[in-house]
Amino acid sequence: MGMREQIETAAARYPDRRSAIMPALLIAQQAHGHLPGPVLEEVADILGVERIWVYELATFYTLFHTEPVGRFHLQLCDNLSCMLCGAERLLAHMETVLGIGKGETTADGLFTLSTVECLGACEMAPVMQVGDHYHGNLNIARVDELLDRLRASAPRVETIAPAAAPSPGE
Amino acid sequence: MFDPVLLKNIDLPDSHLLSTYEAGGGYRALAKVLREHTPDEVIELVKQSNLRGRGGAGFPTGMKWSFVPKRADKEKYLCCNADEGEPGTFKDRIIMERDPHQLVEGLAVSGYAIGARTAYVYVRGEYVTAIRRLEQAIAEAHAKGYLGTGILGSDFDFTIHIHCGAGAYICGEETAMLESLEGKRAQPRLKPPFPAVAGLYASPTVINNVETLACVPHIVMRGSEWFRDIGPDKSPGPKLYCVSGQVRRPGLYELPMGIPLRELVEEHAGGALPGRRIKAVIPGGVSAPVIPASGLEVGMDFDSLAAAGSMLGSAGVVVIDDTTCMVKVATRIVEFFHHESCGKCTPCREGLNWAVKVMRRIEAGEGAPGDLEQLDMLCKGIFGNTFCALGDGAAMGLRAALKHFRDEFAAHVEERRCPFH
Ligand SMILES: Cc1cc2nc3c(=O)[nH]c(=O)nc-3n(C[C@H](O)[C@H](O)[C@H](O)COP(=O)(O)O)c2cc1C
Ligand code: SF4
Ligand code: FES
């Protein structure tokens, strides 16, 4: 199904098309990776709603990205239970091995590192979400293993920059 | 041993499938109400059970349902609050991932009771597995005639839609959730009008938590007396407790309402990690004021915890041990509320920003004399003066940390460093 049809299917669930902006943004983000201005305008046009309504939501909710993110978005929970179970150490470790600070993306575009609020999986603290998956009961060894696995799963691109190169710091 | 009710299926193979749910007696409550009960009788049954909302506030569920006007000419909506953003809470995720049909049946029975034909389940967007399982369960239930038109040969029509959240804690506040469902920024609404009268699309709307709805089919099958006999009469029922933090066996525990916090943490969850002592426990998600180790005899129910100056909230029990700095804990919690403040009202938006600045400097050993009084003053300025309960929760939590662990705050200021580093 194309983006337009997916959005129409979502819109049919509500008596008011404005309600479909959130699902439409999720669909658009899935299709485009992030939500630049022209995509927001396309969503507004498909739904036939005010563009400002779409902008308002795209900038209010943290799961919407108006800027590009890396191929793997490492979202480490640093809320209370994860903090109590060592999330800070994991953050420091990932910053060192990836050569980036939180909120930044590696130069090869592979990893974006973020901290997030409670993921609702505190029984397996510390937890990190990457894409659709939760990785729990993490320690430094498991984080290293996970990063290796993710790197290995990424398709090789010829123009790839050295993996250790720090990003210019956005 | 307490026989699990809400979690009885979750360890079965393929616990999320319709066949498993049916084999355990699933959808019999829906068949029973459609065959034997009027909607008002279901409301009365739930009232008699004394079921109180599991989302945080503990409002009597049957009473909430009875506020929905009976007029037939207006569409009515049922919304399920599956936003589960309260740090320390993970019970609704586990229900949706491992026994989604329990929620689907709860929704159908509750929708029948209040006269709704449409339900929206507002699930936080991070819960990808829960969303997929719930979608699958809804599709299975449709195919089997438990949802759709003329359900099980009755004249009851009912459809369930999933609405994915996009990462904002405030969407868990029920009126902010309605704004979000209408496609707006999630900022709470002024009450009254209450949602039961004018909620989603200005129509009568009931909002209930996942666990609340999951209790309903069991009440239908086993009766209100059975439910009331579990735990304290005014705050009864089986309860899901989420235990996490510095504890040997973190996890989800189903036990009667009202069990002592100490029994939950020490016996069921195994107590402190080797060589450490429990210093404090947060009993109901980070909105709930912290309880020092000396207060662990308190019963885990709405009224006992309120009397002890805290709250049951979402029953997210976070255990903190003696290696941890309480200033750091309190700072992290206030940072969370500051980050999630929707910005609609000044005491919350500005007050929390100010509090975070003061707390970070105390934690860093750069606190000034008078900083603790400054924080007291900020709590006073926020509490009771905010538009929704987010600001109140933040102020209550900070006030409790300042009260029970004032010596730790003072030590930071006097020694100009964190004594735990
Ligand atoms: C800031 C804030 C966040 C909330 N988050 C949630 C939540 O994530 N899940 C939930 O069920 N209730 C949450 N609530 C409570 C809801 O507003 C509402 O009381 C509840 O969903 C009603 O359902 P119940 O009666 O079944 O508990 C929150 C309240 C506030 C003030
Ligand atoms: S108390 Fe905070 S979250 Fe609630 S309405 Fe005011 S600013 Fe928004
Ligand atoms: S605090 Fe990290 S998942 Fe809840």
Fold topology:
The complex is a heterodimer of chains A (170) and B (421).
Chain A: H1 3-11, H2 21-32, H3 37-47, H4 51-60, E1 72-77, H5 80-84, H6 87-98, E2 111-116, E3 128-130, E4 133-135, H7 140-153
Parallel strand pairs in A: 1-2
Antiparallel strand pairs in A: 1-3, 3-4
Helix pairs in contact in A: 1-2, 2-3, 3-4
Chain B: H1 18-23, H2 28-36, H3 39-49, H4 61-66, E1 77-82, H5 91-98, H6 100-114, E2 118-123, H7 128-143, E3 159-164, H8 174-181, E4 205-209, H9 210-222, H10 224-228, E5 238-245, E6 251-256, H11 261-268, E7 278-282, E8 291-292, H12 302-307, E9 316-321, H13 326-340, H14 346-363, H15 371-382, H16 389-404, H17 406-415
Parallel strand pairs in B: 1-2, 1-4, 2-3, 5-9
Antiparallel strand pairs in B: 5-6, 7-8, 7-9
The structure holds flavin mononucleotide (FMN), iron/sulfur cluster and FE2/S2 (inorganic) cluster (FES).
The site of iron/sulfur cluster has 14 residues of chain B, from helix 14 and helix 16.
